[in-house]
């Protein structure tokens, strides 16, 4: 308690002194953390169940706070069963899967001694937003406009906002942002060396400082909450979930901090962390961790699964085939060409990327449409090695479903075709699935190149 008191009663970078109310919430959270530590290690299966609940709640609420339209049931159906919500924007699905990927990465790296750096922050932002897009914005004189959101890069234009009173609230300018982010990370690295550091204060204040900079064109709130929870989890706390139904209180606490009362925001974060700690302790004790509305959420999930089962089966038609080629096929082709060339062009004299579409009849008389994405790297620049690499991705459009498969080879042989995924019409490849295919192609290319080098090295022995 002495260590706790020495920090809570002292002044930190924001120059505030904690009030009695804030102190009570901080003490409650720290006491619950001690209780949680006595229950550790938690059984692996039990901890997985607890963390899945945190992860699903975190994904739903953090995205919904920013205007995502997927319900809790739709979010859970997407993440657990890859069921998309009919009639909801594709962007909303991409936001949820990207956010989930960022969370999973943070949960994984927090187990080790992974540092919090600017590069780490940009990686999180890139996982969250996936690819550039346009959003509504306002000019310096308050007029509506459009601006491009750059992924994993600091903002290129001002991202100030208009408040409810009509005033313009200004964040750091694009020119100020790099220096302010460096200052923020220097402040953080100095704080974590202090013996009396209080992780709750540190995490909450980092969240607020980050929001005041607003370093990215979009996604700052989601990134701030992920970074806050990364800090908390590094110190053995569970993530704190800001619930969408508490949105007004969350934003009110941020506005109070803007007015100089940062302790109100820290108190708000501590209150939510207390709830997370209580939930994790209950789970660790084997108690029921369902919330009052969890049954409603489960029914909402069942509704999505029910709708999916009862959807009229869409059969192959020109429109459906074109939609899949123009979205999934186009995205895959664009990204795989960039990644392959980026890594391997340096080794070869030439590379060729192509697409093709044709009607096929197999040995059983079954007719299907075939869309191919193929690429070939030919003639190694080194005269010492000889070899090439050939990779094909097939979209096979059958009557009631389509397959995505692949095979690789070289000038001498092709390996067996492998089916990657089978989907119904109306369901596109997810961003994660596209990235997985690309990663697989890069790995296969690396292994092929590695084998050529190995064979040459062995021949010299």
UniProtKB/TrEMBL annotation:
<dbReference type="GO" id="GO:0005524">
    <property type="term" value="F:ATP binding"/>
</dbReference>
<protein>
    <recommendedName>
        <fullName>Fido domain-containing protein</fullName>
    </recommendedName>
</protein>
<feature type="active site">
    <location>
        <position position="214"/>
    </location>
</feature>
<feature type="domain" description="Fido">
    <location>
        <begin position="116"/>
        <end position="271"/>
    </location>
</feature>
<feature type="binding site">
    <location>
        <begin position="218"/>
        <end position="225"/>
    </location>
    <ligand>
        <name>ATP</name>
    </ligand>
</feature>
<dbReference type="InterPro" id="IPR040198">
    <property type="entry name" value="Fido_containing"/>
</dbReference>
<keyword id="KW-0547">Nucleotide-binding</keyword>
<dbReference type="InterPro" id="IPR036597">
    <property type="entry name" value="Fido-like_dom_sf"/>
</dbReference>
<feature type="site" description="Important for autoinhibition of adenylyltransferase activity">
    <location>
        <position position="66"/>
    </location>
</feature>
<keyword id="KW-0067">ATP-binding</keyword>
<dbReference type="Pfam" id="PF02661">
    <property type="entry name" value="Fic"/>
</dbReference>
<dbReference type="InterPro" id="IPR003812">
    <property type="entry name" value="Fido"/>
</dbReference>
């Amino acid at each position: 308690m002495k260590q706790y008191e020495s920090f809570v009663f002292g002044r930190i970078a924001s120059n505030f002194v904690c009030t009695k109310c804030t102190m009570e919430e901080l003490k409650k959270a720290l006491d619950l953390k001690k209780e949680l530590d006595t229950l550790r290690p938690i059984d692996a299966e039990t901890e997985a169940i607890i963390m899945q609940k945190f992860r699903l709640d975190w994904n739903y609420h953090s995205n919904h706070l920013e205007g995502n339209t997927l319900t809790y049931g739709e979010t859970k159906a997407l993440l657990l069963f890859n069921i998309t919500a009919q009639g909801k924007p594709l962007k909303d699905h991409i936001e949820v899967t990207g956010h989930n990927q960022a969370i999973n990465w943070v949960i994984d790296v927090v187990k080790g001694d992974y540092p919090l750096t600017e590069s780490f922050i940009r990686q999180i932002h890139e996982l969250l937003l996936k690819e550039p897009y346009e959003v509504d914005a306002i000019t310096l004189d308050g007029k509506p406009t459009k601006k491009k959101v750059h992924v994993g890069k600091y903002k290129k234009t001002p991202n100030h906002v208009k408040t409810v009173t009509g005033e313009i609230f200004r964040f750091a300018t694009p020119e100020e942002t790099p220096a302010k982010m460096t200052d923020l990370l220097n402040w953080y690295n100095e704080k974590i060396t202090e013996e009396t550091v209080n992780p709750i204060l540190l995490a909450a204040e980092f969240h607020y400082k980050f929001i005041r900079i607003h370093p990215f064109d979009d996604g700052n709130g989601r990134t701030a909450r992920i970074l806050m929870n990364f800090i908390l989890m590094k110190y053995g706390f569970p993530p704190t979930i800001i619930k969408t139904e508490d949105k007004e209180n969350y934003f009110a606490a941020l506005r109070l901090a803007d007015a100089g009362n940062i302790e109100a925001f820290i108190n708000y974060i501590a209150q939510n962390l207390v709830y997370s700690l209580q939930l994790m302790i209950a789970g660790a004790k084997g108690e029921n961790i369902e919330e009052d509305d969890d049954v409603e959420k489960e029914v909402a999930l069942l509704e999505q699964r029910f709708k999916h089962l009862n959807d009229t089966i869409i059969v192959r038609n020109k429109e459906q085939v074109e939609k899949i080629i123009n979205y999934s096929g186009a995205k895959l082709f664009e990204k795989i060409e960039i990644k392959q060339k980026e890594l391997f062009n340096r080794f070869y004299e030439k590379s060729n990327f192509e697409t093709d579409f044709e009607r096929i009849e197999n040995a059983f008389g079954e007719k299907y449409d075939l869309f191919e994405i193929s690429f070939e790297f030919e003639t190694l620049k080194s005269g010492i090695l000889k070899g090439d690499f050939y990779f094909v991705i097939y979209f096979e459009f059958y009557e009631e479903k389509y397959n995505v498969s692949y095979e690789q080879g070289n000038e001498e042989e092709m390996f067996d075709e492998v089916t990657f995924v089978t989907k119904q019409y109306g369901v596109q490849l997810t961003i994660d699935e596209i990235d997985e295919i690309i990663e697989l192609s890069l790995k296969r290319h690396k292994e092929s190149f590695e084998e050529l080098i190995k064979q040459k090295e062995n021949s010299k022995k």
